[in-house]
Specification:
Elements: E1 4-8, H1 13-24, E2 28-33, E3 43-49, E4 54-55, H2 57-61, E5 65-68, H3 81-104, E6 111-117, E7 129-130, H4 140-156, E8 162-167, E9 169-171, H5 176-186, E10 202-204, H6 205-217, E11 223-227, H7 235-245, H8 257-264, H9 269-272, E12 276-277, H10 280-284, H11 294-302
Parallel strand pairs: 1-2, 1-5, 2-3, 5-6, 6-8, 7-12, 8-11, 9-10
Antiparallel strand pairs: 3-4
Bound molecules: NADP nicotinamide-adenine-dinucleotide phosphate.
Length: about 300
Amino acid sequence: MKKKVLLTGGTGFVGKYLTQMLLNKGYSVSILTRTPKKNTDDISYYSWDVSAGSIEEKAVLDADYIIHLAGESIGDKRWTVARKKAILDSRVQSTALLASVLQSNNKKVKAFISASGVGVYGALNGKGICTEDTPAAHDFLGKVCQEWEKAADTIAKLGIRTVKIRTGLVLGKDEGFLKKMAPLFRRGLGSVLGDGKQYMPWIHIHDLCAIYLLAIENEEMEGVFNAAIEDSTTNAIFSKTLANIYGYSLWMPKIPAFVLQLTLGEMAILALTGRRISNDKLLLLGFRFEYKNLDLALRDCLNK
Ligand SMILES: NC(=O)c1ccc[n+]([C@@H]2O[C@H](COP(=O)([O-])OP(=O)(O)OC[C@H]3O[C@@H](n4cnc5c(N)ncnc54)[C@H](OP(=O)(O)O)[C@@H]3O)[C@@H](O)[C@H]2O)c1
């Protein structure tokens, strides 16, 4: 019998790629979503409404594994008070809802695997490389990631193997960050953001999904793991590489930090700050990244 993996947020960027990878590996997939579609031969859809606390419990009760990706996008809209609450609640309350279904039914899935972000470390530009032991930051994203991981820990306390994937900037075809940036660069309008010195720990979508698969299959894997390439890509290097792939050298002036701050408000922190990340913990588990070179990863995503 096929093992069943329940994905929350399975309709998103990571979820769609991961669904395909899991199906290719012989798993059966179900998806918890706010807008269920008609089931297909391969995928069952279940509905939930996190803010109302409602969920089709069968989704959880039938699952062998849960991968929790759901959450309001952090980069789509300005961080108003209401938006910040939605970003936090959609992650923490959704985890709590899953935990309550698991607990009240005494259901033991084989593993609960939650997304998290390297934003947990805050803006540590130039101050060393963050390992999983680096303390969390006290800024907004640091707090979101901490609360999100703390909620996942309540599931660990039920005796369920729990893994938290602190994810860097995910690169994929026509999705995520590249979907926003590629059209500008394609038109020759790419530029460096701020002083360009901020680190941009990145990961190719294929490698990220392979890490989720490893988290399912390797029973030794537990706790937090950084998921990003350990290099020293800065925004300037990233922008230069992207421009070169489109056949030109950057010529546009750098976009000053204050312009981004005026346009994006507090969310400008996403564009203007970063940190370097260690992935040693994953390597020690035997994980090998397929895409370690930024140029090759970008070319794959851009079909170049
Ligand atoms: N992409 C990146 O670069 C990156 C980097 C670091 C961390 N991450 C984290 O990894 C996870 C997956 O990322 P992604 O890029 O695939 O995100 P995404 O494309 O924005 O998809 C997230 C999914 O979450 C669900 N969702 C959104 N708001 C929700 C709400 N209020 N209640 C319940 N579900 C909600 C949506 O599913 P439905 O519409 O079907 O309900 C959506 O498809 C996210 O938690 C993200 O923060 C991503």
